[in-house]
Design goal:
This protein has 519 residues and is α+β, with helices and mostly antiparallel strands. The chain has ten helices and 35 strands.
Length: 519
């Protein structure tokens, strides 16, 4: 039996070679999670939101540094919302379920800043959404589409403005592909509508232009992911992408380049079986443009992890499968990242159902790990020892020159941001007209200096703007619910001292007057 298995591995399955995979188990996440986002942000593995054990949303993020996961608080959990890495290196997050058990939709949008491990919020979405995709266009604007059990349309955000509906769609879609195909156009398409029903007609909506039916999308079905679907993970170049599709149990890749679809030619059929049996390929694709490779992750019933590599830079594209030894309790629906150097990151996921989440983190190597030679270690240790000897001399010399002892840094409690946000949101404290920063300090048993330092350092805004942001979002919600309600009443209910201050703050935050925004 072992001899037959060895022969199968050497010859491959239907000619596809199978190669052993080196898997390193990193420390587990602090919070088990599924339907989360993942990004390489600021050079650090970072996960965002999702839900944890019991299908409970978790408004937390974690970044990996020096062998440990460090937890930071987000404004919202974005459970099955969008997670899009921006060209600036920041990460855009928005939408998601509003309640435990994957119920409802949300409006909130925020940006993660890896340099400071902090979040700042943007104006809310035009529609409440979950199972939603966001695309950063080349002009810096954000295009959004997709929803689950609610309405859908194309909406767009431009810096300094609001998320505004720009176009209807032929059909609401669950986690559509939203891909830019030219400097001023993008395609929106997908396999399922907002209730999970198939969309076999192959309609493609456009940002600029009329919708059209694509024959290849009538023949092949795109994947229905039920997970965040970042456009950058499919991008092979400017305005070109690879998209996984299925037909009668057959897996293939479509190319979308300069607005035209075609089937990627591969040297061998993409395999559905290994020498040990069937492979369950997970949803999604991870493109690594530097090496012109695309990756797809899968597993089998014995707990083996598989990585399918498609070398799309070759013609026809090369195909190879990497496999691990059986892994105990291997989670499914994990969030993954393709990394330079043939590495692949697997984070979180669930076993059996969405209630049983995992914090598993696996770093996979398809190439031998690079070892550091012994003499390099000795050189590094010698340099470190020299620095340790010189550091006190430099410090005392600097102190002597300045003649002033350095002041101790002011330390803000790491959970203060969470406590401020919870107090504002759960008790709607912003609706108090004469709210002062000292009121928050009293309620949180701290002082105004720490509150101000937290808001300016972590949330990146002053106390008045922070409070007015809540008041404006509340006013927008009132205007949505009852467009006929007088603005004077809305101003008072939202917590503004008078209608003039309401108009000034609204205009400064949104670029429009309340009347213009309501229209």
């Amino acid at each position: 039996m072992k001899l037959l298995l060895l022969i199968a591995l050497v010859l491959g399955v239907k000619g596809v070679p199978f190669t052993p995979l080196d898997v390193e188990r990193l420390p587990d996440l602090n919070i088990p999670r599924e339907a989360h986002g993942v990004a390489l942000a600021g050079g650090e593995f970072t996960v965002f939101g999702g839900h944890t054990t019991g299908f409970v949303p978790t408004p937390t993020a974690e970044y990996y540094r020096r062998g440990k996961w460090h937890t930071v608080n987000m404004l919202y959990p974005h459970d099955a919302g969008f997670c899009t890495q921006l060209s600036s290196g920041d990460v855009l997050l928005g939408g998601g379920y509003s309640e435990t058990f994957g119920i409802g939709q949300t409006w909130g949008v925020e940006v993660y800043h890896p340099a400071t491990h902090s979040f700042s919020y943007l104006p809310i979405l035009n529609h409440k959404r979950t199972h939603v995709t966001a695309l950063e266009m080349s002009d810096g604007s954000i295009l959004v589409s997709g929803n689950w059990y609610s309405t859908d349309a194309l909406e767009r955000y431009t810096s300094g403005g609001l998320f505004e509906q720009v176009k209807a769609v032929t059909s609401p879609r669950d986690l559509p592909f939203v891909l830019q195909v030219s400097p001023d156009d993008a395609y929106v398409f997908g396999w399922a509508d907002n209730y999970g029903n198939p969309l076999p007609d192959g309609w493609v909506d456009r940002l600029n232009g009329d919708p059209f039916q694509e024959p290849l999308l009538q023949e092949w079905a795109t994947e229905n992911l039920h997970l965040p679907n970042p456009p950058e993970q499919y991008r092979t170049g400017e305005f070109s992408y690879l998209i996984p599709v299925w037909k009668d149990g057959e897996l293939a890749l479509l190319q979308l380049k300069e607005g035209r679809f075609s089937v990627l030619e591969t040297a061998l059929p993409l395999p559905q079986e290994s020498p040990w049996g069937a492979i369950e390929w997970a949803s999604g694709l991870q493109v690594e443009p530097e090496s012109a490779t695309a990756w797809k992750q899968g597993w089998d019933t014995d707990g083996r992890l598989y990585l399918l590599r498609i070398s799309y830079g070759e013609t026809p594209a090369g195909v190879e499968v990497f496999y691990s030894a059986p892994l105990e309790d291997l989670p499914h629906k994990a969030r993954c990242l393709a990394l330079p150097g043939g590495r692949y990151l697997v984070t979180g996921g669930a076993v059996n159902d969405a209630y049983n989440t995992r914090g598993t983190v696996l770093l996979c190597y398809t190439q031998p790990r690079k070892a550091v030679a012994g003499w390099n270690w000795r050189v590094m240790l010698a340099i470190l020892a020299a620095l340790l000897l010189l550091l006190p001399l430099w410090f005392f010399g600097r102190k002597k020159r300045s003649g002033v002892a350095p002041k101790p840094a002011r330390t803000v409690a790491p959970d203060l941001q969470t406590r401020i946000v919870e107090l504002m949101e759960k008790e709607c404290l912003y609706r108090k007209k004469d709210l002062h920063i000292s009121d928050l300090a009293t309620r949180l048993n701290t002082n105004s200096t720490y509150i101000s330092a937290c808001l300016n350092g972590q949330i990146k805004m002053s106390f008045p703007r922070f409070v007015n942001g809540y008041r404006i979002r509340y006013a927008q919600e009132l205007m949505r619910k009852d467009p006929s309600k007088p603005l004077s009443e809305i101003s008072e209910e939202a917590g503004f001292s008078n209608e003039s201050s309401f108009f000034r703050a609204f205009k400064a935050e949104t670029g429009q007057t309340p009347t213009e925004w309501k229209q």
